[in-house]
Amino acid sequence: MCLQKDSLLFTATRHTTELTFRMLYSLARFKCSLLQVLKGASRTPRPITVPRFGHQTLAAALPAVGGSPGVRQARALDHERLLQVQWDDGACSFYPFTWLRDNCQCPLCTLQSAQARSILLTDLDVHTGVDQVRVTDSNKVSITWPDQHNSEFEPDWLKKRCFSPEARQARQEELFLNERDFWDSGLQIPTLDFKEVLHDDKAALDWLMTLRRLGIVYLKGAPVEQGQVARLSQRIGYLRLTFYGHTWQVQDKPMANNIAYTSGKLSLHTDYPALHHPPGVQFLHCLQQAQQGGESEVVDGFHVAEFLRREHPDAFNTLTSLRVDFTDTGSDYCDFSVQSKNRIIDVDNEGRVVRINYNNATRDSVLDLPLDQVQSFYSSLKTFVELMDQPENVVTYRMEPGDLVTFDNWRLLHGRKRYVSHSSLRHLEGAYLDWDEVMSRLRILRKAVHGDS
Amino acid sequence: MCLQKDSLLFTATRHTTELTFRMLYSLARFKCSLLQVLKGASRTPRPITVPRFGHQTLAAALPAVGGSPGVRQARALDHERLLQVQWDDGACSFYPFTWLRDNCQCPLCTLQSAQARSILLTDLDVHTGVDQVRVTDSNKVSITWPDQHNSEFEPDWLKKRCFSPEARQARQEELFLNERDFWDSGLQIPTLDFKEVLHDDKAALDWLMTLRRLGIVYLKGAPVEQGQVARLSQRIGYLRLTFYGHTWQVQDKPMANNIAYTSGKLSLHTDYPALHHPPGVQFLHCLQQAQQGGESEVVDGFHVAEFLRREHPDAFNTLTSLRVDFTDTGSDYCDFSVQSKNRIIDVDNEGRVVRINYNNATRDSVLDLPLDQVQSFYSSLKTFVELMDQPENVVTYRMEPGDLVTFDNWRLLHGRKRYVSHSSLRHLEGAYLDWDEVMSRLRILRKAVHGDS
C-alpha cells in the first residue's frame, strides 16, 4: 500500500514568496522582531505530527480551549497599523487594524444569533488608526477606535486567527481537511457498521474523517431494502437531487438512459462530469448481486494523477489545462439536456489535484479544441486511462446484499465488470451528496465528539 | 442604459495563439489550403449579428437542419491523419481520424438510447489510420477502418462539429449562451406574466433566454400564497435544497440565523458564497410588502467588475486572485457549519468574469492571507463595493404582493433597504436553482419552440 502526503508532495509547488517568508520566519522565530511584525509569528512552532488516519490533524497545532496562553501585553504599532499581542509564553502575533475593526464582535457590529457581520463595508474605514489599546482585567484585548467605538477580543479568538503562516496553515487544515492519504491496489478498504454510523456520533465521525482522508469507506449490515442511502444521507443532512432522481436504481433496464443501466462493463469513471459541479460524494447500496460478474473496481484518481504528473508531465499539463465538453440528454426525474466543460484533472492555485472529471460515456462528440491540439488530448487521456487501469492501482471488491459503499466522487474513479443475471436482477441503489454538506456534518460531529478546537 | 458585449470586451484577452490562427484563417478562408488543413475552415463566414435580446444567438451562424450543404467530396489526408470534407458550397472542414473513430455512431460504439459513447478508450487506437473513405448514395461520409469496422457520419452532424474557430465558437455559444448584455441604472427590468411562463413554452423560453443574457426577469401576476417559487422551479425541473430549506421565508425573525431575516438594510451581496458552488439562480416572490422601506436594489456585478478591471486593474487583480474564507453556521433545515474559500470575482481561463462571490455578512473573520496582503485586500474590496453602490449602477424597485423576481445569483448583487412593518410582516419566499438545470430546460424549450438547431 502506497501512502503519500500531498502536503509533502506539493511543497515544491508553493509560492516562492510564501517559502521565503517561511525561511525568514524560521530564522526569527524566537524574537518579536520587525521581521515578525511583517509576517506574524508564534514563539515555539510545535512539531506537527499527522497520523495516517484518525481524527487528529494539523489543527492539533492550534491551542485547545483553556490551554492557550493568555495575553501578556498588547500594543499598537501605529506606523505599521498593526496590533502586536505578546502572549504569556513569549510568542507574538500581529493583527492589522483594519481587520480588527472589520471583525469587531460587539452586538452593533455582529448579529450574534447568526454569528454574521452586520457592520457594512461602506462604514469601514480601511485606513483606520486606533485611539487606545489595553488588556482588560479579564485578559481581553480592548481597542478604542478614533470614533470612540470600542471592541474587545478574547485571547483564544485572536490566537486562532493569528496571521503567521503556521497558524494559518493549521487553521485551514482544521477547516477543510485537505490532507489526503493516497493508495493503490494494496488498500484494505476501511469497513464500519452501518447501524453504528447511524446511531453513534463517534462512529459517524470516524466514517467521515476516513472518507475525507482516504476517499472510500465500506459500511456493512444495512437492511436489504430500498431507502438506506436516503437514510444515510439524512445522517449528514440531505442528499443532492439530480436528473436521475433523489436516489437512483442501478439495474439493467430496457432503453437505458445511462450506460450504467445495462449489464455491460463500466470502465473507470467519475459520475456526472456533465454537471459543472459534479456530486462530491456517492453512496451505493447493494440490494441484489449478479450471479456472475458485476464486481466493483475503484482507483485513487489523485494517486494516479500524481504519477502522471511525475512520469508524463506533458500529458498532465494537457489534461489540467484543456476543457472538454460533456453531454447528457434523456429523461428520468424529468427530461434533461445537460452540457458542461470540465478539465479531466482539476488543480487548485497551488497545483494540488482537487477533482477528476472523467466519464468516457458522456464525453461529448463536440470537441472544442483547435485541430492541432486534438491528438495531444487523445494521447494524454489514453496515457492517464492506461495508468488507472494498471492492476497495481485497482482495488476490486464484490458487493453483497446489505453492503453500502461510500466514496469521494471527486477523487475516486469507479467501474464495474460486466455481469450476467439469470433469475434475479442485479440491483444497487445510489445517491449523491456534495462535499460542502458532508464537511458541515463532519465539523459538527467533531465538535460534538471532541469539543470545540 | 449601457450595453456592452463581453465578446467584444474580451477580444484583447483571448489567447494570442487563437488570435494568430484567426488571422491566418481570415487570409485563407476561400481556399482549401494546407493552412486550412491545420485549423479547419468554412468558406464563407457569415456576418454574425447578435441581437440585444431575444432568441437568436451566434448559433444562427450554424447551418439549420435541412439548410446545410451536402458533401461534395471526402478524402483522407493520411499524412496529417485528417479527413477532408469539401461541402457543396465549396467550403472545407477537417476532422482528425482519432476523433472520428472515437465518435463512431454505430450501435456497437454508441448506446443509442442514452446517446452515450460505449466504445472504451482502452479499445481506441489513438494513432489509427483509415482504410477507405467514400461518400454514400445518401450523402453520408463512410469510413472503413483498418480492422474493417465501418463508421458512417451524417453531413449535418459533421458540419456542426467542424473544428474551425468560427464553427467552434458558434457551437459553444449555442450550447452555453455565454454572451451577456451589461447594464446600469437605466435598465428597464424585462417583465413577463407568471402564468404565461408556466403554461406557454414560447414565454418560458423568452424568460430563460433573457434571464441568461440580462441576468434578471420580473414576473407579475403570481398568486399571493406560498408555493409559487416551487411551482416555478418545477417548470424548469427542480429547485436546489440548501441548509435554509427547499424554499425559505424572508421575514424579520427572532434569533435570526441569517442577516436577511431581520428588518435591517441588506447591502449589495450575492447569496451563499459560503458554499463552494453558490446557487446560480434565485427566485424571490413577494407575499407581503413592508409599510415603509424594504425596496429592492440590484446591480450588474459583471458590468461593475469590468469597470473595476479598466479603472482599477490592481484591485481587479487582487479580487480575482485572493481566495477569501466565508462561513455560515446555525440551524434551519438542519444544523450546519459551512465554510468555503472563494474569490470575490471569478474569471475563467479566457479572463471573462463568470461569477461574483460576495456577502459581507458571511465573510469569515478567518482571513487566510499573509499580513502584507491584508491591506490591499481591504482597499480593493472597498473600491469594488463603492463602485457597485454608485447610483448610476443601481436599479431600485419595490416588490408588491404577487411579484416574483428571478435573477442570476452568479452575476447580480442584490440588496434591500431597511424597513418598518406595523400591522403585517413583510414576507418574501425564495428558492434557488443551479445554472446547469436552468440551461438544460432552456435547451429543451429552444428545441421545442424553434426545432433542433
UniProtKB/TrEMBL annotation, chains A, B:
Alphabetized Gene3D superfamilies for the sequence: 3.30.2020.30, Clavaminate synthase-like
GO biological process: carnitine biosynthetic process
Cofactor(s) annotated in UniProt: Fe(2+); L-ascorbate
Keyword Metal-binding: yes
Catalytic activity: 4-(trimethylamino)butanoate + 2-oxoglutarate + O2 = carnitine + succinate + CO2
Main enzyme class: oxidoreductase
Annotated TauD/TfdA-like domain residues: 191-432
EC number: 1.14.11.1
GO molecular function: gamma-butyrobetaine dioxygenase activity; iron ion binding
Alphabetized UniProt keyword annotations: Carnitine biosynthesis, Dioxygenase, Iron, Metal-binding, Oxidoreductase
Family: Belongs to the gamma-BBH/TMLD family.
Function recorded in the entry: Catalyzes the formation of L-carnitine from gamma-butyrobetaine.
The name this protein goes by in its record: gamma-butyrobetaine dioxygenase
